Amino acid sequence: MTIRVAMWSGPRNISTAMMRSFGSRADTVVSDEPLYAHYLAATGLDHPGRDEILASQPQRWEDVAEALTGPVPGDPAVFYQKHMTHHLLPAIGRDWLGKLAHAFLIRDPGHVVASYAKVRGEPTLEDLGYPQQVEIFRTFGGPVVDSADVLRDPAGTLRRLCADLGLTFDPAMLSWAPGPRPEDGAWAPHWYANVHASTGFAAYDPSPADIPDRLRPLVEAARPYYEELAAHRR
């Protein structure tokens, strides 16, 4: 029976590298941000590659949910779903989520906001996805991994994550060939240059976050959500 892993992450994290990691397993197929087209259609936001994204995925969340919980071509052992928590809009039903095994990739909000501010000047708490992450965790539970821990100790952190998900750790998760992959979303040309150039997880950078003063209240608003999840990290 296929284990369906829904990995929930906010933006400006290592979510695409984590998708590469799981996609390097011989027993795994991956889905890249399957709710993105619905998110754009529902919000009307103009993201890079909007038209291509809307054409590449179902725009009704019900169709996405059916695909994520229905038969998986090839009947793989693992179906890894890379989700952005801010894509889970309030109008999306939640019952289908009970059919998935949830996991959570978190990052300190100071670093998230500092990075996000470079690509969008005024992010909101909902843009960062922390409230949505906590909502899913409180309802369904699941292992929590911090991106800093992954970068410090990829093998140890991934080994614990796999154990919590009922999977055998595969050393192939630690490296991958550079370049694009067929499963990359239609937005990859706009956002995946660093991942396409990579062959594994980047080295951990202990530098403090350079947070613009105007965004410090946002960091403080996000921190209680982060700390609630971080208390459960593996």
Automatic annotation (TrEMBL):
SUPFAM superfamilies, A to Z: P-loop containing nucleoside triphosphate hydrolases
InterPro entries xref list: Class-IV_PLP-Dep_Aminotrnsfr, P-loop_NTPase
Any single biological process term in GO: carboxylic acid metabolic process
PANTHER family reported in the protein's UniProt record: AMINO-ACID AMINOTRANSFERASE (PTHR42743), AMINODEOXYCHORISMATE LYASE (PTHR42743:SF11)
Family note: Belongs to the class-IV pyridoxal-phosphate-dependent aminotransferase family.
Protein name from the UniProt record: Uncharacterized protein
